[in-house]
Amino acid sequence: MSTKNKIALVTGGSRGLGKNMVLALAKKGIDVVLTYNSNKTEADKVVAEVQALGQQAFALHLDAGNIKSFDTFIQQVTSHLKEQTGSTQFDFLINNGGTALYSPFAETTEEQFDTALNIHYKGVFFLTQKALPFINDGGRIINISSGLARFSYPGSSAYGSLKGAVEVLTRYLAKELGARRIAANVVAPGPIATDFGGGRVRDSKEFNDQLSSITALGRVGLPEDIGGVVAFLCSEDARWINGQRIEVAGGINL
Question: Is residue 211 part of a domain?
Answer without folding.
Answer: no
